[in-house]
Amino acid sequence: MDTTGQSEILGMLREKFRIDTSGYRPAFLSRRLDKRLAETACGDYSEYIQLLRSDGGAELKELLHSLSVPVSMFFRDPLLFDLLAEQVLPDIVECNRQGQQSRLRIWSAACAAGQESASLAILVAELRHPQIEQIYTTLFGTDIDATLIARAREGRYTARDLEHVTLGRLRRWFVEREGLYVLHPEIRQRVRYVRHDLLDERQHLPPDVLFSQFDMLACRNLLMYYGASAQETIFNKLDAALKAGGYLLLGRSEYTPEAFRANYSLVLPRTGLYRKRSHRV
Ligand SMILES: C[S@@+](CC[C@H](N)C(=O)[O-])C[C@H]1O[C@@H](n2cnc3c(N)ncnc32)[C@H](O)[C@@H]1O
Questions:
Q1: Domain boundary pick from 48, 68, 88
Q2: How crowded is residue 232: how many other Cβ atoms within 10 Å of its Cβ?
Q3: Ligand 1, residues 67, 195, 216, 222: which to mutate, most atoms within 8 A of Cβ?
């Protein structure tokens, strides 16, 4: 493996996009780079570096996308979303209730183009509580990739993104236009989208967030791309932002890092839904 070539390429990414790839698993990085080399028909790293220097930044952007693996879809893992709709969100609303009002603070911390954050916003829009007239909701959607954040703000999706959306929700919350599905403004406006790098230790919370104490935090299908030390950096941030008793959503095959395990309990196997204990163990 040409490690000098590889570090030069990663250095270019760092300089242009402030992306720190040092926490990525080396095998993952090599696979992604090899794929870009094949797709650009470059024979080796030095040819690829020439391309990166000469095409005005287009390939560097492609490389960034290939590393961020922005695979997502609405209601990815339907069982989890059913559980959130039927049990978890109503419970939080009830716990936070003050008279006829309540509040909900949610952060989707690697939201790709908004598929996950908008799914959560749909659940919130559909929440009904007989004794509560108003639920004040704060919903943040953040991702490291500014292009994805711009797409999330636009709210236009492909049929593939909507594979798990029921017919009722499709009719209620989307309009088909020129082969794409446009998300209802009511849902789009419920989410505040901001670019945020979970590995950036200078910023504990997304810009615009005044205080942490989130009731629910989603960070799904992201930890698996990072090595142990980066996972811990990310988890420190998530743990500090989530209130005691709050819910954490990880990917189905992701786990809380060892150092945090005692303070989180798995709500239901194979859902990635964890609850932070009320008291530190
Ligand atoms: C596989 S997608 C998961 C999207 C969504 N959470 C889901 O499960 O459907 C991983 C996302 O993590 C984002 N990401 C990668 N590194 C990140 C970081 N350091 N900070 C914030 N987001 C990051 C990527 O841009 C990508 O959108």
A1: 68
A2: 17
A3: 222
